[in-house]
Design goal:
The protein has 511 residues and is mainly β. The chain has 3 domains: 171 residues, Macroglobulin (MG2) domain (Immunoglobulin-like, Sandwich); 146 residues, no CATH class; 148 residues, Sandwich (Immunoglobulin-like), CATH 2.60.40.1930. Helices cover 10% and strands 43% of the residues. It is built from 6 helices and 31 strands. The strands form 6 sheets. Strands 1, 2, 3, 4, 7, 8 and 11 form a 7-stranded mixed sheet that branches. Strands 9-10-6-5-12-13 form a 6-stranded mixed sheet, with no helix packed on it. Helix 2 crosses helix 3. The chain is globular, with a radius of gyration of 24 Å.
């Protein structure tokens, strides 16, 4: 067994995040929450002769944060997308950097690790060989020097996986939250001496996140309430609660350079969890959220009362288009931008009781899966909806980061409608949205507020294996018909209680 000092930094892999137990309030965290990265994904294929080489990436366990420092397994599988056959004798060159899109130069033409465009050195850069094509990096977090355990091939100088396809990495890993860039280049395939020229090597990029968890206790009207904030882009600072304004505020380092933003894939996700026992906060169906003074709306803010029985979850889901708009607004106000060009400032507050009464609970038009992999645009006809009448629901699935339709895919999904007591009204299973669009017919039994659930099961594309990386459960409301202001607010409170009592039975049909 040989050991090798790679870099004086930690190796990091991604999560689809989950919160652990709060110190005094016991939450149930059996479900996944929204995520920037995914537990597994098939990256777009590259041409290799008459083959289409695609890379499958998977992490196990899928739930890791800065709280959960445990052994993790990162699996890489290079396969021919034409027939799903694993390509043999693959040498992977894996580079890991902290942050967004970075530039790389092949080590075939450079003897030293390349720096990023900002001068940052990679956290990891090395060669790993798997005879059967399946490579698993077992990451063991610990203090001290980063070490790789195994044997090196004398020809390629690559670390060789054991017969099970595993290579152990031990060191100060999984210690920092934030976004990580995995850049994978294929050095050789089929046999150890079949080496690609640098310009012809298949290249893949994956952007993965590790969540930073911040737990706090706040005293409000002589009672203490526990909250949890999870940041999936970078570490936060200056987290405060202002009782007089009923608002939270925090800041996060961010580079607002518009050219940089336009060239890089960017997705900012912040998550605040509030106990529902906190009257006027955790039991509120409405929140006002801002970034650098600009109000967020629509799909940029997701309010989730469904996932946890005792917790209201508010998600900031800011995709690249949103960030570009914010950056342009920054440039338009140079005086203000001078004070904010290195930070992203967040606020979260609940409207006053009178303002909430004036806000009508409406039928949801944009649903987000609980894994963050897909948005669903939903529209209904007739409008307004009528009970005991056939209604059409039109569904279009699209990417939450780019806002582009997933029209190159067919989406397999289930749909469930529940009444305010959590009873099933309609169940439709194994539906297929051709080219990511579909229309279904349902009938509502009476005037009421209903919950719609869309469970994404897989994405299908001709000639490729099913993509399971975007699977998840999306939820929203359907109002039949749209209620007058105030009435829906009262009904929605009863729905929170009734639906959440039976939510676990509803997650898996028949279980």
């Amino acid at each position: 067994m040989l050991s090798r000092n790679i870099l004086p930094c930690c190796f990091a892999i991604f999560i689809v995040f989950q919160l652990l137990l709060s110190s005094t309030t016991h939450y149930n965290f059996s479900q996944k929450a929204y995520a920037d990265g995914l537990t597994q994904e098939n990256l777009p294929p590259a041409s290799v002769g008459n083959r289409k080489a695609s890379l499958f990436v998977k992490v196990s366990p899928p739930i890791l944060t800065t709280d959960s420092r445990q052994d993790a397994y990162m699996q890489f599988r290079l396969f021919d997308a034409n027939n799903n056959q694993t390509i043999q004798h693959v040498t992977y060159e894996i580079t890991v950097n902290k942050g967004t899109l970075l530039s790389f130069s092949s080590s075939s033409s450079s003897s030293s690790p390349s720096s990023s465009s900002s001068g940052q050195k990679p956290l990891l850069r090395d060669f790993f060989h798997a005879h059967n094509g399946l490579l698993t990096l077992k990451v063991q977090p610990s203090n001290g020097t980063l070490t790789v355990y195994g044997e090196q091939d004398p020809f390629q100088n690559a670390w060789v996986a054991d017969p099970g396809g595993t290579i152990n990495v031990k060191g100060p890993v999984l210690l920092e939250g934030g976004l990580y860039h995995f850049h994978i280049e294929i050095f050789s395939i089929d046999n150890d001496r079949n080496i690609f020229l640098p310009q012809n090597a298949p290249k893949f990029d994956s952007y993965l996140s590790v969540g930073d968890v911040y737990r706090n206790k706040w005293n409000y009207q002589n009672q203490v309430y526990n909250t949890t904030l999870i940041s999936y882009y970078d570490k936060i600072n200056n987290l405060n609660f202002d009782p007089s304004k009923k608002s939270f505020s925090w800041a996060m380092p961010f580079n607002w350079n518009l050219s940089r933003i336009q060239q890089q894939p960017i997705f900012v996700h912040e998550e605040m969890r509030l106990p529902k026992s906190w009257k006027g906060f955790g039991d509120s169906p409405r929140f006002n959220a801002t970034v650098n003074g600009q109000t967020l709306s629509g799909r940029s803010v997701a309010i989730d009362p469904f996932s946890f029985p005792d917790t209201m979850v508010v998600h900031y889901l800011i995709n690249k288009n949103d960030v570009i708009k914010l950056a342009q607004q920054q440039q338009q106000g140079q005086q203000q931008a001078a004070n904010n060009n290195d930070v992203m400032r967040f606020t979260l507050l609940t409207p006053s009781a009178s303002a909430q009464q004036q806000q009508q609970i409406a039928t949801s038009s944009d649903l987000v899966t609980n894994t963050g992999g897909i948005h669903a645009a939903v529209s209904w006809s007739p409008n307004p909806l009528k009970p005991k009448t056939q209604s059409n629901v039109n569904i279009s699935f699209y990417d939450p980061v780019t806002s582009n339709p997933l029209s190159a895919n067919d989406v397999k999904y289930d749909m469930v409608l529940l009444d305010k007591n959590g009873h099933t009204v309609t169940t439709k299973q194994n539906l297929v949205a051709k080219n990511a669009t579909d229309t279904q017919i349902v009938t509502f039994p009476s005037n009421d507020i209903y919950q719609i659930q869309l469970e994404i099961k897989e994405l299908l594309k001709a000639g490729q294996t099913p993509d399971l990386s975007r699977n998840g459960l999306a939820r929203g409301y359907v109002v039949v018909p749209e209620f007058p202001n105030g009435v829906a607010i009262l009904l929605i409170a009863s729905i929170f209680t009734a639906v959440l009592i039976v939510q676990r039975k509803l997650l898996f049909y028949g279980k």
